[in-house]
Amino acid sequence: MEFKKLYILDHPLIQQKMFYLRNKHTSNLNFRAILNEISELMVYEITRNMAVCPREVETPLEKATGYILAKPVTLIPILRAGLGMSDGILRLIPHARVGHLGLYRDKKTLMPVEYYLKFPGDLAKAEIFIIDPMLATAGSAAAAVDCVKKRGGLSITFVCLVAAPEGVRYLQEKHPELPIYTAALDRELNDHKYIMPGLGDAGDRIFGTE
Ligand code: PRP
Ligand code: URA
Fold this sequence. Notes:
Blueprint: E1 6-8, H1 12-22, H2 28-46, E2 52-58, E3 63-69, E4 73-79, H3 83-92, E5 97-98, E6 100-105, E7 112-118, E8 127-131, E9 134-135, H4 139-150, E10 155-159, E11 162-163, H5 165-174, E12 180-182, E13 184-185, E14 188-189, E15 195-196, H6 202-207
Parallel strand pairs: 1-12, 4-5, 4-6, 4-8, 8-10, 9-11, 10-12, 11-13
Antiparallel strand pairs: 2-3, 6-7, 14-15
This protein binds 1-O-pyrophosphono-5-O-phosphono-alpha-D-ribofuranose and uracil (URA).
């Protein structure tokens, strides 16, 4: 496998939901619902290596040792499209804090432009998941990871739904230690740096803009 830290979550249920998500006839309403369902299904795997610590608990019968997460969880959706994944993830990690990072890809230069940032404090102690459905050139993802690291983030995972090989290569060059989880690794980028076959413009399909 060319990509050491890339994990493709191709569970049959995820594959079937991706089939509906890619379909250009899927409505905005269904697109949003399915995106959240896939994100929720991915949580089990993306959190698999999180540390836990022992805590004493009293059952109705006796004392026992239970386990709780060792670190607080922080989700960082990249606006706008990353917002489409956050509800699904929060369903399973309802106590997670949420930071927002506004980035858009400039239509001409294709470089990410930052327009909003609000993170919870003490990123250094958090288990951080940066989420965005699309990893195309990875300009946005690499900038997001830079930004989180600059503000103290240490334990960072990137989660997307569709990745292009070009983007995975670039992100791993820039941040070799970063685990990347995706539901699908697609063929390539086209001349406009859209993922092929992909699912189109994720932000537009979530929010009904065009
Ligand atoms: C999309 C997508 C990623 C980015 C991926 O956002 O949600 O953030 O493009 O492309 P890249 O890997 O080449 O950087 P977009 O810029 O369209 O903004 P939006 O979410 O506001 O629609
Ligand atoms: N952004 C998207 O929403 N889709 C792509 O294919 C590439 C970037």
